[in-house]
Specification:
5-stranded parallel β-sheet, alpha/beta, binds guanosine-5'-monophosphate, about 190 residues
Length: about 190
């Protein structure tokens, strides 16, 4: 059986990568989504083990020390990381796996899996990004400003990715991800 392919999808918070990933997953049952672990508190509507594994700092640090994370990062005072076990298992079973992580994590993954495909989602404009981040309204102004600053740092990394997609329209962006996956699969045939 052919091993699955590993895809990393990044982009600034507010660029719409979550929505795009969800739709890509809905349309292809062979693809798996890696649920990350975080020490951030759940936002309204977020579910444990679906959006993230929400854990304490102690639990996170324990798994990290045991070598249980494929990559990890500290972002706006919280840890985020990819539990490695599930990803390895899915790839071995032939499933393609999507990691929705930031650029720090993406470049760590590239070190471990040089064959991973890195895709960056760009917002249509910086103004649009600002209003999406501010419009979320689930955080303090300080946290939102830091997210905005992080989003700018993130944007500066786009040219290091294998592919870039401008999210003007969600359906078109989803099609673009699917086109990229097709190209990557055909490389192996
Ligand atoms: P949020 O708090 O908005 O859900 O996520 C904040 C940032 O952390 C986003 O850029 C998101 O892509 C990134 N992120 C989520 N999970 C992971 C992970 O497992 N590893 C890394 N490195 N970043 C992650």
């Amino acid at each position: 059986m052919t091993r699955g392919k590993l895809y990393v999808i990044s982009g600034p918070s507010g660029a719409g990568k979550g929505t795009i990933c969800r739709k890509v997953l809905e349309e292809d049952s062979n693809i798996r989504f890696s649920v990350s672990m975080t020490t951030r508190k759940p936002r309204e509507g977020e579910e444990d083990a679906v959006d993230y594994f929400f854990v304490s700092r102690e639990e996170f640090e324990r798994l990290l020390a045991e070598g249980g994370l494929l990559e990890h990062n500290l972002y706006v005072n919280n840890y985020y990381g990819t539990p490695v076990k599930q990803v390895v298992q899915w790839l071995g079973e032939g499933h393609d796996v999507i990691l929705e992580i930031d650029y720090n994590g993406a470049f760590q993954v590239r070190e471990t899996y040089p064959e991973a495909v890195l895709v960056f989602i760009l917002p249509p404009s910086v103004e649009e990004l600002r209003s999406r981040i501010m419009g979320r309204g689930s955080e303090t102004e300080e946290a939102m400003n830091r997210r905005l600053a992080e989003a700018m740092n993130e944007l500066a990394q786009a040219d290091k990715y294998d592919y870039r997609i401008v999210n003007e329209n969600v359906d078109a962006a989803v099609k673009e991800v699917q086109r990229i996956m097709k190209i990557e699969r055909s490389k192996e045939a």
